[in-house]
Amino acid sequence: MASAAAPDQSPRPVRFGILGCASIARKLARAMLLAPGAAVAAVGSRSEEKARLFAADNGLDAATTRLHGSYEALLDDPDVDAVYLPLPTSLHVRWAAAAAARGKHVLLEKPTALCAADLDAILAACDAAGVQFMDSTMWMHHPRTAKMRELVDGKEAIGDIKVINSVFSFRANEDFLQNDIRVKPDLDALGSLGDVGWYCIRAILWAVDYELPKTVIALRDPVKNRAGVLLACGATLYWADGKTATFNCSFLTNLTMDVTLVGTNGTLHLTDFVIPYEEKSAEFCVASKSNFAKLHTRWDPLPSKHVVTTDLPQEALMVQEFARLVQNIRDAGGKPEGKWPAITRKTQVVLDAVKASIDKGSEPIEVAS
How far is CA 24 from CA 21, 77, 197, in A? Predict the structure, then answer.
């Protein structure tokens, strides 16, 4: 076992290997350069030349970043502690499980799997190897999210949440709609549901502290491409106590990232929940104990705006937290944090139910606990 850092020393950085050079990996490479406790040790691609170009384009130190011309070579690199895996979803089971089997901690791009059974295979491999698993849902790590959690849990401002709405969409261009991996059935068969619906489902579950819904019913007439991949869809989720949530996700409408939580005492709105408008500042609005003024000419009280600042972007905060968990295992003999795989699995289970309802013409689907 690696020796722990001396008390007066910072822990050794977690050495990341980037497994695949997808465009989203550029953002994570920057995050690893910014995040305390992290370092990019290696890049693996299907060719060494592609790995070299990625490293050069993203400011990675040529002297300290090893380049591998295959995924296997990166996983066999003894100087890699953890892998970030942004490969197409259809490749996640094979390569995430292989990374875990070689003792690498796994930061996995979302959607994490095509179905819960595949995710369970990944999580079982991580569990067997004693490595940390986390998906890369970045907004979870923004300090705004923690501030909203405080407010929601405090009950005073919002009360009991009864209704949740979420929308995540962007207007994809023709090249995306024809050629992107997210519209290819053999690469990312979940389409818009996996790519952007994942965030909506996670936001809904976050709002109810990860209590699974009882039933899911997909909205009728989802939009699919000729290959049958979802371009736009949505669903309504129902809980036994009467809570409901509805989401819409699409590659066909203007960039929108909304979440609304409606409670007995108040309403929380945010309109940039996945990627804040500004990198170092994010806000949300709360209307609490709202009413009308005399003659119903205005609201009283007015909603309040809450601004949360951060020195690091949310993706760097995610890398920092993941690195902290890995350091605890590597240097202090700690155990993997179980919260993150549990949240991932609940998100996947609900996504599976939505997909099943879509496939069955919007039939109600009971959500497996």
Answer: 8, 23, 17
What are the tens digits of pLDDT across the range 97-116?
999 999 999 999 999 999 99
Strands (E), the chain: 14-19, 38-44, 66-68, 82-85, 105-108, 133-135, 161-169, 215-218, 223-224, 230-238, 244-250, 256-263, 266-270, 281-288, 304-309, 365-366
pLDDT surpassing 90 at residue 2? no
Query: Using an 8 Å Cβ cutoff, are 158 and 261 in contact?
Result: yes
As given in the structure block, the two tokens for residue 74 are: 């990166």
Check residue 144 and give its pLDDT: 98
List pLDDT tens digits, range 152-201: 999 999 999 999 999 999 999 999 999 999 999 999 999 999 999 999 99
Residues 204 and 210: their CA atoms lie apart, in Å, by 8
Residue 37 three-state SS:
coil
Nearest to 350 by CA among 204, 221, 137: 204
Domains present along the chain, CATH in parentheses:
14-139+317-337 (3.40.50.720), 140-312+346-366 (3.30.360.10)
CA-angle at 341, arms to 114 and 215, nearest 5°: 60
Measured CA to CA in angstroms, residue 265 lies from 152, 160, 302 at distances of: 11, 7, 14
Q: Is the pTM of this model over 0.90?
A: yes
CB atoms within 10 A of CB 50: 16
- Residues annotated as catalytic are 110
The two three-digit tokens of residue 83, written as one number: 């892998």
What 8-state DSSP symbol labels residue 328?
A: H
User: If pLDDT is split at 50, 70 and 90, which confidence band does 10 have?
Assistant: confident
